[in-house]
Design goal:
This protein is of the alpha/beta class. It has two domains: 158 residues, DHBP synthase; 201 residues, Rossmann fold (3-Layer(aba) Sandwich). It contains 15 helices and 14 strands. A seven-stranded mixed beta sheet has the order 5-4-3-6-2-1-7. The chain has a seven-stranded mixed beta sheet with strand order 8-9-10-12-11-13-14, sandwiched between helices. A hairpin with a 4-residue loop joins strand 1 and strand 2.
Length: 373
């Protein structure tokens, strides 16, 4: 039998391991105990609640529960905020929580308090878990919580993202010939945020002594794989590979950041709102998300590990350019990469231009504007 200290020695960093376990528990709908210097609290995802679970939590809370909401959702509820806030839950009422967290026509029904450190940590756990950013927080004494409940510290949660960006590493690589780009290698990294896999597609043989053509492409299941008409992602992906093939090679980073970092479930929730006429960013705000949840520090680390120091980036997004520069890479050139405007995506493209500052050609958008607009 292995001695306990030897097992612990295999765990490398217990803080980061505790966050990964907490993410799994939280996504599964089970409560997690978050501990910080001043407070400990049971936290659970609002989207995981049903009537029975709410009743159980209400018994545990004894009138002390609160609902933590991000500033974006509070604004939709009629409260002008730039920071998260909390609403008291004298009873853990499933219908009330669902209304405050999700309903389109909901308005705030109680005073909004300042979110404390544990509330903000709970929302960070929700973000890492890719669930709705609405969390029920129940202050408790740590010693009163069953040992089966996963415990994660505030320090572990705060340090997790930057640590994972540094610890990203190659786990496998192999040549994968593509149609039109037969000389291509896929390099799989593990890390970033959680143990999600990130892929570098090395097209051709880019000269690492010169600026390398690079694109940071966030995964888009609907556009990349199924050809959704609501976005231009699939076109951007394929045109980038063609450009690199014809221009000395390059590296396309395929990043597991679906839905601007909100996850596929929240992306589809936003799509439903868009189908009702809402702008893409308004739809995200209704769900509690700001303009963009993505971070690109780990992408820069991937490029560095591949030997890249100078880049010619293919993007319309100024945030990506700044992220690589801030990470210490030299951005020698930035080149636009557009998809085909369609009647289904032209308003989405206009929103990216007008609200997120993307570099998108105005004439193309006007030319392809829907007739009934």
């Amino acid at each position: 039998m292995l001695r306990t200290e030897r097992i612990v020695g295999l765990l490398d960093d217990f803080d980061h391991l505790s966050v990964e376990r907490a993410i799994a528990e939280f996504r599964s709908g089970r409560p997690v105990l978050v501990t910080d210097a001043a407070e400990s609290a049971l936290v659970t995802s609002a989207e995981a609640l049903d009537g029975e679970r709410s009743d159980t939590l209400s018994d545990v809370a004894d009138g002390r529960a609160r609902l933590a909401l991000p500033s974006a959702r509070l604004r939709r509820l009629g409260v002008e905020r730039t920071v998260p806030g909390v609403v008291a839950l004298p009873v853990v009422d499933h219908d009330r929580i669902e209304t405050l967290a999700l309903k389109l026509d909901a308005r705030i029904d109680a005073p909004v308090g300042q979110a404390g450190p544990v509330d903000q940590l709970a929302l960070e756990l929700a973000a890492l878990s890719l669930v709705m950013p609405a969390v029920v927080v129940i202050p408790v004494a740590r010693e009163s919580v069953d040992q089966a409940v996963m415990v994660v510290s505030g320090h572990a949660l705060r340090s997790y993202r930057p640590a994972m960006a540094r610890q990203i590493h190659v786990v496998s690589r192999a040549p994968v010939p593509l149609e039109g780009a037969p000389d291509t290698e896929f390099v799989v990294f593990r890390g970033g945020e959680g143990l999600r896999d990130q892929v570098a597609i090395v097209v051709g043989k880019p000269d690492l002594e010169k600026p390398v053509s690079v694109r940071l492409h966030s995964a888009c299941l609907t556009g990349d794989l199924f050809g959704s008409l609501k976005c231009d992602c699939g076109d951007q992906l394929r045109s980038t590979v063609r450009f690199m093939t014809e221009n000395g090679g390059g590296i396309l980073l395929y990043l597991d950041q679906e839905g601007r970092g909100n996850g596929i479930a929240n992306k589809i929730r936003a799509y439903k709102l868009q189908s009702q006429g809402y702008d893409t960013y308004d739809a995200d705000e209704m769900l509690g998300f700001d303009l963009d949840q993505r971070r690109f520090g780990f992408a820069a680390e991937m490029l560095k590990q591949l030997g890249v120091s100078k880049v010619a980036i293919l993007t319309n997004n100024p945030v990506k350019i700044a992220a690589l520069e801030n990470a210490g890479l030299e951005v020698v050139e930035d080149r636009r990469v557009h998809g085909r405007p369609t009647s289904e995506n032209v308003l989405y493209l206009a929103s990216k231009r007008d609200r997120a500052g993307h570099y998108i050609d105005l004439d193309d958008l006007v030319t392809h504007k829907p007739v009934n607009d």
